Amino acid sequence: MKKVLKFVFVLAFVFGGWALAAASLHVVRGPGSMLHGYVPVNVQIVPKNTLSFKEIYIDTTKWSAADVAAHDTFVNRLKQANKLDLLQAPAPAAQATDAHPAAATSATAAAPAPAEHTSKSIFDFGN
């Protein structure tokens, strides 16, 4: 009986930890690849602002403007975490830079400056 009780407690702690992790993180699959093309998918973890079991796994590879508008809290969290690249398709300008070096310099000169954080999160260390 003692072994069964110990097993139940260990099992409860393990599954409780997994439940807490699932409630506090977004697992986002975005367009593109990771590690300079060595990993064919782009999966990143973004911490949530609040604990909830909504939007734990989100696949944004085929999102349209309507999908972005429907998930405004998630998009705002991506802005705060500087991970808006998970919503965009890979830029065709990268392909143009290989063919025309002059186009690469004009494309990089016209790039806008990154947006500043407006609100802080508990996960923004040292900022």
Distance between the termini: 52 Å
- Report the major sheet: 3 strands, mixed
Helical percentage: 40-55%
- Total of DSSP H or I helical runs spanning 4+ residues: 5
| Radius of gyration from CA coordinates | 20 Å
Helix/strand order, N-terminal first: HEEEHHHH
The main sheet orders its strands as 2-1-3
Q: DSSP strand (E) fraction?
A: 5-15%
Mean pLDDT: 78
* DSSP summary, beta strand count: 3
Backbone structural class: alpha+beta
Architecture overview:
This protein is of the alpha+beta class and 127 residues long. It has a domain at 26-90. 43% of the residues lie in helices and 12% in strands. Mean pLDDT is 78; it is low at 91-109.
Which features does this protein show?
alpha+beta; 3 strands; 5 helices; three-stranded mixed β-sheet; 127 residues
Question: What's this, in brief?
Answer:
This protein is an alpha+beta fold and 127 residues long.
